[in-house]
Write a structure and sequence with these properties.
By secondary structure, the protein is an alpha/beta fold. The protein is built from six helices and seven strands. It has helices spanning 6-18, 37-48, 58-73, 135-138, 201-208, 223-239, and strands at residues 93-98, 115-121, 127-134, 151-154, 258-263, 267-271, 297-302. Helix 2 (37-48) packs across helix 3.
């Protein structure tokens, strides 16, 4: 088993020293105590994979897994787990042990800031994989409309082929943007945003508007998802990244706080996240400043379907 990076190992150590319990609140983005979703996934996937749950009743299985998660994250194991929502309030996540792809969330709506720890179990009752997603990543998969009320917006394009709607970034992130940010040196688009590595929204606009007129071909049955992935890749290339990565989390290009929307109509599906939301984004604070959902930049592209013969 590969060793975890030092930045991930540091979280359980800090939590252990803090003497916090899973029920004690932690400010989202706290650089020492709050474990962002990508790091939480890597930690749990690395340490839970291979764990056997064979012979355990369903309720006992759930308890054993939660006890192990407490140990891995540096929390003391409670004598009994309270029936809170979510079950791990301090890190704002719930656990779901699954043998199938049919995730069922009972008696509550999805939350954009809650994390959902999905633990895949084999037919032999062995944990094979752990995936951590936020509510806004799960929302597009809810085709029933019963889990949540999703936000929508209507975009009214101007006569121009490209339009910068907001000339400046939100005030909280202005001190951290730089026109000299070189994205070719970044590890990838799924990195967390950091000071002076964020391009201003005007620079982002200048780079992305060069994609007007670009075309791409569908490659598979899920055409909508494939087109979105193709556009995501083009955006990463246009911004200057040397590699393309997509972990399915919000926003699409976390390193630049950019969410990409591909449209064939004026109605924009926003999922759980409203662009003016003051809820905190699941990224580390930047110089003690918590990034909010309203600080995210949106790149909206209109697609013209190719004529068919």
């Amino acid at each position: 088993m590969a060793e975890l990076p030092s930045n991930i190992v540091g979280f359980p150590a800090s939590i252990r020293r803090s003497s916090l319990t899973i029920y004690d609140p932690i400010q989202i983005g706290d650089p020492k105590l709050w474990i962002p979703a990508p790091e939480l996934q890597e930690l749990l996937d690395s340490k839970l994979a291979g764990m056997s749950l064979a012979g355990l009743a369903l309720r006992t299985r759930s308890k054993v897994v939660k006890q192990r998660i407490c140990e891995l994250l540096g929390y003391p194991v409670p004598k009994s787990f309270k029936r809170t929502q979510p079950r791990f309030p301090g890190q704002c996540f719930d656990t779901y042990i699954q043998k199938s792809n049919n995730l069922q969330i009972w008696n509550e709506e999805l939350s954009s800031i809650r994390r959902y720890v999905l633990i895949r179990v084999s037919d032999a009752d062995t944990i094979t994989r752990v995936k951590v997603v936020t509510g806004d990543a799960l929302a597009p998969l809810d085709t029933t409309g019963t889990l949540t009320q999703k936000h929508q917006a209507r975009c009214i394009p101007s006569a121009h082929t490209a339009e910068l709607v907001s000339s400046q970034d939100t005030e909280p992130i202005r001190p951290f943007v730089s026109t000299k940010a070189n994205l070719s040196r970044a590890i990838g688009p799924t990195e967390h945003p950091t000071s002076r590595k964020l391009l201003p929204i005007s620079s982002v606009f200048k780079k992305l508007k060069k994609l007007i007129g670009k075309s791409f071909v569908d490659t598979g049955r899920d055409q909508e998802r494939n087109r979105g992935a193709a556009l995501h890749r083009l955006c990463c290339e246009s911004l200057g990244y040397q590699n393309y990565l997509d972990d399915g989390q919000f926003p699409d290009i976390r390193h630049q706080l950019i969410e990409i929307k591909l449209q064939t109509a004026a109605t924009i599906d926003l999922g759980l996240v409203c662009p003016d939301s003051t809820e905190p984004l699941d990224v580390p604070q930047i110089q003690n400043t918590q990034i909010l959902h309203r600080d995210v930049r949106y790149a909206v592209f209109y697609e013209k379907p190719m004529a068919t013969r």
